[in-house]
# Entry
Amino acid sequence: MKVSRLFTMMVIATVFGVAVWQSWYELVRLDWIKGPTRAAWQLPDRVIAELDLKPGAVVADLGAGEGYFTFLLSKAVGRNGRVYAVDVEDRIVGNLEMRVQVKDAINVGVIHGELADPRLPDNTMDLVFLCNTYHHIESRSVYFKRLKQDLKKGGRVAVIDMRDDVTGLGSLFVDEGHWTSWADLLGEMEIAGYTLEQRFDFLPVQNFAIFRAND
# Structure
């Protein structure tokens, strides 16, 4: 009886230990030990580096929101480059315009987009960038097929969106329904006329992929 009880306690302790280790691993992977900031799990510097933007490039930040990536993109393309910060909500667009003025970001233009059209200038974009925006777009294959007219020849689209398969502590960062499965992302972009160029796996709770428009 005592042996059985001891064995049970050992099993419980082992399971508890594994759970603690998994939780600690998730915390480390999310860089939570650096502080509960978005930068700790969004890893923006590495994201920008992987985009491999050249000085003078023209980029659109679709669903720019507060401009989290807008101003990082602005720095990456330099004074001779151009960043179009696009959003569809009046309040957000107004806030973006004020932030651009405060930061004196002379290479950033704010566009009040529409749900089905970002209203970008045609044949201009080297890269269209989306972070946590893809899942909000309706009829995505249609949307991105139309978007091809805004890209230069060989232009790229970079998509970062929450994954649907996040477990453990990472799931705390993902709101229900605010995600896209990898299969859906890949399939929809292929239908729209894009080829997967690169897929990155260093973001703990998001898919990150770069697609190139087919000729």
